[in-house]
Design goal:
The structure is a homotetramer of 190-residue chains.
Chain A: H1 11-29, H2 36-43, H3 47-53, H4 57-75, H5 84-97, H6 99-108, H7 112-130, H8 142-161, H9 168-180, H10 183-189
Chain B binds a DNA duplex (21 and 21 nucleotides) through helix 3.
Organism (chains A, B, C, D): Lysinibacillus antri
Keywords (chains A, B, C, D): DNA-binding, Repressor
Domain HTH tetR-type (chains A, B, C, D): 12-72
DNA sequence: CATGAATGAGTTTTCATTCAT
DNA sequence: GATGAATGAAAACTCATTCAT
């Protein structure tokens, strides 16, 4: 029945460990299926320790979700002007680098749908500007294309990117080919 | 409220009402966040009434999920040979007709990922056969296309189809254009 | 959804059937483990029918228990004077003829212990009068013998009598031999 | 009552208290009639505390039952050869020392009948070997005697031993006298 | 800094009983 | 005489959170 501070223990370390384990489990099982007991077991500390560093289960999850969203916002902050190819690339690179946070923010968070709606809007804006450059887009509803693109990105991220079967670069290129690249078609047509 | 039979009460009606409410709530909040108390409140009966008609929360949810999956299997049963356009159409029509069940089977069920994997496989098979017909596919990884298509379908279903902003027919056509139709591009190119 | 009186149905018949099934199930599973739903299922009627004939689960069980106890009382009513052999015989014959009621009254009822205490008292009284006739009893505590006899009777009833491995006659004789019969011993001794 | 640790609280103490109370109540009311709420009320803690120390109501009961059975097995383990007098003595001593566990294992457990059947078999084996030494046994069915003895032991245990009206030593001697001891009879006969 | 011990507030599920037909 | 439909009351169990050490 030893109590009190562990030898070599260190607050910041415990906090980081808890955070890491929380991300792992949240990203896999989702918010409701993740129990505090799971997290602390994985971090090898007790439940009260969790509350030493985080206000509540909810606030931690919210923090993680917001971190994801914040990062996402930062990506598109500086230069207002992006080409769709850059948008796709930047997204995939970010997702590839933060797979677990991405799973949380894109699939597990209750307002992941908002995040996606925002991205879709972004796509729309960009495509609106670029539509003349892609013959393939002619006659197509940009809203539909944007939503479709969002769907493609989220699924490819989940199944091929995060699983490391493909790289962000590869997937960017493939997506661009699918959605906007007439090379093949044009070549053939000629 | 007193015990015993309600005036004008009717078992089949109650069961259907409960089922309907359950589908509504399951499809919105998911399995874990849906409480029996939510369902019975919506159906204006008490908790034991739920157990009069359903074995448990889990078995009801499983039934709904399986109904969705069964329907899906039936779609592709008869003629073994489908063209990708038919596959997409049939999916979207089915989803449009069963929006809530679709939400459950495609987004809320624990094994929705399996359903999608199966669909992706289907896409791959069909595309493998048809690849020569679509110049756009040249040089592209069919697996990636299939996954991407799955993503597009699931997102368009969720955001445009189920919300009745677009019809299954419209979305099928748009998807075909995006993924396989060179018309516009070719026309322009000429 | 047919409702109302069954063709050929008959109140007394239903009541008897319910009673019979109740006895069967109560005797096997005990009061708390027996559900009204078990009883009515066995009798092939619905739950409200049970309440048509019996006030409640408890009152039916109490009735059965009291019937057992009443019968038991009747056995020893008339001639005040019994020999221990007669007491044992009469008990075993009654138990053999009413195996299920016996199981209820002797093993399942909450106050079966009272019944047994009363029987033990009876044994004591009778033995007190007869003790001179049985040399084996000399020096032994009649209370202990009476309790022991009660235990023997209840166990033999449960394991050999009710299972029809032995008859009441056989067991009476054997019990008398064990507890009071010196024949063998004396014969040998001489 | 507030949340969190009680002043001076101690886990092992709480667990033991819960166990003790559980044994008391299980032994009196049986498994089904014992509610967790009874146990925790008796131990002056809340229901979750119960689950802090025990997996479930069932597993606790099973543990207690198995403890009883294990002890019982241990009694007869070492020397394979026992005389019936020793068997009876050892049983009664064990029962006297563990009255509540005995009530659970011998009367309340769902498989107490198995325990008794096993004991009866033991009696049979031992008596088979010793039958020549007891003239009283001549002409009697050893199975009946064994069952009868089991009944005597269980009843005497319940009514005289556990209630501390008689000691294990006294009851052993009395049982031996009743079942196997011709002294008195013989003495008289001579 | 960290733990051991405990609890409030739910959640699913069961069962005897009772109305309306 | 009998059923279909419903419910009140309680049971076991879970989980995020909190106090005392």
């Amino acid at each position: 029945m030893v109590r009190g501070r562990k030898v070599n223990s260190n607050g910041e370390k415990s906090k980081q460990l808890l955070r890491t384990k929380a991300i792992e489990i949240f990203s896999t099982k989702g918010y409701y299926q993740t129990k505090i007991s799971d997290i602390v077991k994985a971090a090898n500390v007790t439940q009260p320790t969790f509350y030493l560093y985080f206000e509540s289960k909810e606030s931690l999850f919210l923090d993680l979700k917001e971190e994801f969203q914040q990062n996402l916002n930062n990506i598109f902050e500086h230069p207002q002007e992006f080409r769709i190819s850059q948008v796709i690339e930047k997204l995939l690179y970010y997702f590839a680098e933060n797979p677990l946070l991405t799973k949380i923010g894109l699939y597990q968070s209750d307002d992941s749908f908002l995040v996606k709606e925002k991205l879709v809007e972004k796509f729309q804006q960009v495509l609106e500007k670029e539509k003349n450059q892609y013959h393939l887009l002619e006659g197509l509803d940009i809203k539909t294309i944007s939503q479709s693109l969002m769907g493609s990105i989220e699924r490819l991220t989940l199944t091929l990117l995060i699983t490391e079967q493909k790289t962000a670069a590869e997937l960017s290129e493939e997506l661009l080919s699918i959605y906007f690249n007439q090379q093949a078609a044009l070549a053939t047509a000629k």
